[in-house]
Design a protein that fits this description.
The chain is 75% helix and 0% strand. It is mostly helical. It has one domain (2-18, 33-94, 114-186): Ferritin (Up-down Bundle), CATH 1.20.1260. Helix 3 packs antiparallel against helix 6 (130-158). The longest helix has 29 residues, at 130-158. It holds the Pfam family DUF305. Keywords: Signal. This is DUF305 domain-containing protein.
Length: 188
């Protein structure tokens, strides 16, 4: 199981590195559409929240498996944020900022941001520790990943930029595998 997750994360990392390069004439000349812009602009803050949740696990989680999973999530999503930021900059589009404190997370489906945790839920996660943190983290991260998978599927259906579509496919595969792992850790 862990090897499968590691392989999926390695594949996503390799894809990300390939997507960062502009040596391929097809990618350099590829066009993008509004769906590609929306995907990147929404997935960046979505990933930023997952990283914020994962960083809490470093000091609050009881389970070594939860800590390892959180480190894997952070390790996969940091480079994806950099890649999507690069796309938005090259397209002369707005890049979401790193400060999420002003974002309204109350409606998880607002603006297509499915799976986002509310400020109250984030505060609850931050206040928890040990087994309670593990349970909250896994439950919330499953919901968070499900939202990202929905966004990735929309990109695959409506996007035009080949690298964004490929990243969306990798996000769907990797996060589906992580959901399986999280359900197993929850005993579901």
């Amino acid at each position: 199981m862990r090897k499968t997750l590691t392989a999926a994360l390695l594949a996503a990392t390799l894809l990300t590195l390939a997507a960062c390069g502009n040596d391929d004439e097809t990618d350099a000349g590829a066009t993008h559409n509004d769906a590609d812009v929306t995907f990147a602009q929404q997935m960046i803050p979505h990933h930023q929240q997952a990283i914020e949740m994962s960083e809490l696990a470093e000091t609050r989680a009881a389970s070594p498996e939860v800590k390892d999973l959180a480190a894997d999530i952070k390790g996969a999503q940091d480079p994806e944020i950099e890649t999507m930021t690069g796309w938005l900059e090259s397209w002369s589009e707005d890049v979401p900022g790193g400060d999420m404190s002003g974002m309204d997370h109350g409606d998880r489906s607002a603006n297509g941001m499915e799976g986002m945790m509310s400020e109250e839920e984030m505060a609850e996660l931050e206040a928890a520790s040990g087994a309670e943190f593990d349970r909250l983290f896994l439950t919330m991260m499953i919901e968070h990943h499900e939202g990202a998978i929905d966004m990735a599927k929309t990109e695959q259906e409506e996007g035009e930029y080949p690298d964004a579509i490929a990243l969306a496919e990798e996000i769907e595969k990797a996060q589906t595998a992580e959901i399986t792992t999280m359900n197993e850790l929850l005993g579901s």
